[in-house]
Structure formats: structure tokens, C-alpha cells
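Session log. Operator J.P. requested a structure for one protein chain; no other inputs attached. Running the standard single-chain path with C-alpha cell output.
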Amino acid sequence: MNKIWEKWTEHYKNLKIDLDRICKDGIINADEFNKTEPKILFILKETTEFAGGDLRQLFRERVYGVGKMLARWTVGILDKFPTYNKVKTMADDQLKNYLNRTAVINLKNVTGESRADRPIINAYAHQDKDPLQEQIDSICKKSKKPSIIVACGIGIMDSLVWLLDLEE
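Structure written below.
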């Protein structure tokens, strides 16, 4: 997956985007992801500067905010949706272990503000269509079985329809 980040860096360099604003994402923990079926890919809008330069590293280390929500969804998907109370009372270390079995990418890999702006997210997704498609394909090909792609947030599905050439 390092080659994808070389391509992202070159892509943003050509667009004259500040490379320090790139936030890497993708498979959080390759060993855990490769052992897990089904494969789950969460697609988000963007990350804030708070997340720093590598969303994967952040989620490997701790679970909070959106990461906690994604971890709870992972528990539901992988464990056939146990009761909410069971999931809600899970310790952060348990949730972190679930989150580490997934992949998480952003439609916009340049850090943003505290609030995502849909037209800007869509503009980035459009200009970044080729590397985004390559990254998604790479993650989904890690499994011989179909992957589960979860669109997280308002407007993401709209972008995914044309990004992944899906039928409406």
C-alpha cells in the first residue's frame, strides 16, 4: 500500500497542494484486515488537522469520536448485530481491536476544517478520482469474497455512484 501513497504524493505535488496537509488512510492493520471476513471499508469525507498525518496510525493507537462509531459498526457487521447495550459497554481496547480489522479512507485526503463542505469534498473526489479508484480497488482485492463498503455521511453515496461507476 506504500506505492499508493507515492502516487498520492506525486498527484498532489502536481496540483501544487501542500504535501504536509496530506492525511494517509487505508487498511488500518494489514494483519488483522487480512484475517477478517467480510472485509469492511468505511468511506468518510475528510479528516481534520486534529487527526494528523496518518489516520491509520491514529486508529491503531486509540478509538474516539468517529473511530468509536466505526468500531461499533464493525462489531455489528462482524458479530451479526448484538444488542446495542453489549456494544455500548465494550471497552475502548475491545473497540480498537475491531476497528483495526477494517479499512478507512477519505474522499478528500487533504486535512480540512472542523466541518466538511460538500462541494469541496466532491471537487476533491472528482480531481482525485483515479487515485481514489485505485486505492478502493486495492483494498477490495484483498478479499476473494465481496467487500462491504460503508458510505459514512451525507453526500458520500452521491460521490461513490460516479466514482465507482455504480448503477443508481
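Operator note: The chain has nine helices and four strands.
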